[in-house]
Amino acid sequence: MWRVYLCFLGMIVLGAVILGRVIYIQNVQGDYWKELADKQHLKYIKTEAERGTIYSSDGNMLSTSIPIFDIYIDFGADGLREKEGKRFYANLDSLSYHLSKLFKDASQAAYKKKLIAGYKKKLRYYSLKKRVAFEDYVELRNFPLVRQGRNKSGFIVEVRDNRVNPYGLLANRTIGLSRGDTSKNVGLERSFDSVLRGETGQKLVRYAAGAYIPVDGAEIDPENGKDIVTTIDTYIQDVAENALLKMMTENNSLHGTCIVMEVKTGKIKAIANLGRLPDGQYWEDYNYGLGKRTEPGSVFKLTTLLALLEDKYVDTSTIVDCEGGAKSFYGLMIRDSHKGTGRVTVKEAFAMSSNVAFAKLADQFYHNQPSKYINYLKRLRLNKRSGIDIMGTAAPYIKEPSSKYWAKTTIPFMAHGYEELVTPLQMMMVYNAVANGGKMMRPYLVNSIDELGTTVKEFHPEVLVDKIASDATIAKAKSCLLEVVESKHGTARALKSDQYLFAGKTGTAVTAMDNKGYNKSNKIYQSAFMGFFPYDNPEYTIAVVIQNGRDSKWAYGGTVAGPVFREVADKIYATRIARTPVSGMWVRNTTSISKMAGMTSDLNNLFTTLNYSQDQIRKSQEWTSLYMENTAIRNLENPVGGGKSVVPDVTGMGLKDALYLLENMGLKVSFSGRGKVANQSLAANSIFKKGETINLALN
Question: Domains of the chain (ranges plus CATH)?
Fold first, then answer.
């Protein structure tokens, strides 16, 4: 028996030890173990704020966030499992049917199989579907089981922001990209990231069954980001983008930029940047206007002219011998594109863009005092970044006389646009300063920062240089720029307009393909035109710089960049400057019947500009379709009249309007051709299914 008693005593002692240990853990170490358990099973995770919207100056969204939804199911939810899953199984078939119909990625049977498997395994955070669009989420909320709420259905919804640019290509590189890693953002999305992103919040989650599940009522809401209103005008941007694209496509150019700036303020109203992709298409792949520095070519002659005039070494009437269009400078030949020119005035030499003339004048007066010339270039801020409110601008390079690369030939080559590196925007600032009476403005892209429709910070024009030259010098420089367009010697005489005066300078720079040197097989051309209009009271400065390829048809600035300038200037003048309707430029009488369609507000603006009656347009409807015969409105329709599942009539619309309307209704769009929509594959007023493709033929 003593052995039985010993075993019994041992069990009592063991039980006492266990009980004592339990009491010790609970009362003495309890707080420590609870804290450790919470660290392992509970934690706070960040919840991102809603990113602010980027607007154009005319109120259009250039970049915004739209919500997307990630759908999860907690198969361990009490309401879902009560009464042995009666609620789950009662709704299983109908729920599977609706999910299959909505997402179209699996059959009803497949969805049913997934749901049953998740239920049997008691998965706590089963991922059903990610990146669900808002309209699909609204439909999902009314599905069987889901509509009974989170506690009974187990459905968990997490909302995320998806960044979209509603206008697609329009100013895409300037507006920029917003990625998960903000350090990889570009454009305004990066420069104003701290303003746009807001303050992150946090929510408490519990680790269970291999996943973190949100804990209700334990959240700190994020503070949404603020909006920024840019200086970009969507109409001017669209005009610049299309004019640049048309020329580059026709000339098979490599890349190019077109920038439009307000003369008196420095506001950038448009900046188009296009590069050719491997498949031959063009896209805003890089900010060539701000980030690409090159040898500018003959547009740089304006700086040499300003220096010579300001130092009173020459006047516009001074005679200079072009020596037949070719001259050797210290063993290196400089040539004009036109041969045979002799003695001409400085104004005529500038108008015909004589390289020899400006190389001679600069070498004559600055060869022994190069610092005087370089210091004037610094006065024009050509040795500094532009100061524009966006990251990624390139630093210029102006060679110093103390540089080991300085040579006897440097001054004559710099004088006509070589041996220095500047961006198109930096050269544009000089032209804008001349247009502005000598006052150089800082270029900028953001008008204000807004919060809930109220301006919290406003940006104003800033003067960088009060006077880049005397009034007399500025007046003479302006007259020389006008001579380029208006005189029989001018390299831009073919661009002359009968409606208004504009002034500017062509530039054609020889560049090297792939940095392989300027040999004959690698030599290609950069075409440029910079100028301002109207001449008497300048309102806009435009810079166009296009890099051509080996297989480009044209090379000269007046032939490639000049027409882009003229097209943009014409349209801005007709819509923004002309006090009376411009005759003969855009409107012509026709006896044919034509159809027009688009947003009602846009058509109202069009008819106001062209002095047409708008009485028949129903202001209450968002979209309008109309027929015009001669100059009279003949009939009106509503292109969107049948409901959200009925195909609208988009014939007569431009592609952007048609894409916006159709894709927002859930259709996929393919198109061919250019111009307005002439035909559509799905008949107007027919019923369609979301995700169906409609083909548009443009005329």
Answer: 46-163+198-222 (no CATH), 234-577 (3.40.710.10), 593-698 (3.30.10.20)
